[in-house]
Amino acid sequence: MTTAAETITYGAIVSAISFFAVYLLTPVAIKSLVAKGQVVQDYHKPGKPPVPRPAGPVLMAGIAAAELVLYALTMNPAVLTVLASTAIAFAVGYVDDKRVMPGWFKPAALLLAAVPLVALHVQGDHLNLVFGSAFIPLLYIPLVFVIMPIAGNTVNSIDVLNGVASGFVMIAMVPLLAAIAIFGSMDIFLAGLPLLLASAAFYKYHKYPSRIFPGDSGTLLLGTMYGALAVAGRAEIIGVIALLPAVVNSFLFLSSVKRIVEHRQVKARPVTLLDDYRLAASKDAGAPATLVRLIVADGPLSEKEVGHRIFRLAIISALMAFATIAIQYFLR
Amino acid sequence: MAGMWAMVLAVAAFLVMVVGPIDALLGNTSRLAISAVQAVVAIASVVALAFGLGRLKRAYLRSKLH
Fold this sequence. Notes:
The complex is a heterodimer.
Chain A: H1 4-36, E1 39-41, E2 50-52, H2 56-74, H3 77-98, H4 105-109, H5 115-119, E3 126-128, E4 133-135, H6 140-158, H7 164-183, H8 186-206, H9 215-232, H10 236-242, H11 244-257, E5 271-273, E6 278-281, H12 291-295, E7 301-302, H13 303-331
Antiparallel strand pairs in A: 1-2, 3-4, 5-6, 6-7
Helix pairs in contact in A: 1-2, 1-8, 2-3, 2-8, 2-9, 3-9, 6-9, 6-11, 7-8, 7-9, 7-13, 8-9, 9-10, 10-13
Chain B: H1 2-19, H2 22-26, H3 31-65
Helix pairs in contact in B: 1-3
């Protein structure tokens, strides 16, 4: 149990480590990836410029350094389980970055990320349901195995435009951290700070126009760590509400294509690129429904404008998550 | 988005206020049977939520894209 003074001190330490590690290492990674030729084309820009990828290793390094220091300070094993789940998701994403894997690979492999949480029983026995809690010691175990792949793939699926994945996680983390601080534990709150600060530092390079892409290793790491924190911090429902636009995006895609596939495997594209590089909704009835397709259904928008619309939705979801926190706080 | 939020909260409230105290309705039934009934009802409510969201999606897509 950490005191208020310790919480502030530890919070400042882990925040500084994660932020500055990612902030300072990302330019180094950009140079190194470009030198090695590890670049992909940015199809939404004139001339399709090459952009280095993946930034997952940098995010992992910054978060791991902060979490290991936090563990040394608190000696709370829950911190290590969150880190272990994150590292597993990073490894799964890194394999997908290096080799073209089938659509089932990511959801199936991400089941492994639930193992550290269940093995150390960090989820507890009571599922927090805002209006009360449910005692589900056995049912909670398969639920964690469902939550982790969904969280990872949900953030992965929103990584469609410059800066969206990192900016979205940054916004969603604010209510999640508030919920963990109020209803969960301060050690898990501290373990969540590196995700917020690493995302903030990475956003500087990932925002429009991107200087680096996170890759699957980066997005799966961000999403799975978000899921692990929601489980360990007893804030699953609030975590889902804060992530609603990304959940909607995954839900729309899955219910359109009716199977688990990679976006690259879908023949009909949900949006088309106009000559002026604005995005327009596809007229093809067989094209999958996605959040971006719905956003541009009212009229073509530039990539930057679509990103801003997604952030606006993320802020609305964050406000709804805060309203849910208030409901839970006054009902307890 | 607000509709989805309301649906998520409605399912959470249903689980806590109806499924949770279901043991009072089932009387002297064994603990395992009560848990099984609660699990089935809870899973059915989540499936119903997904179905409701699917309907919401179809209606929204029809108005937006077609």
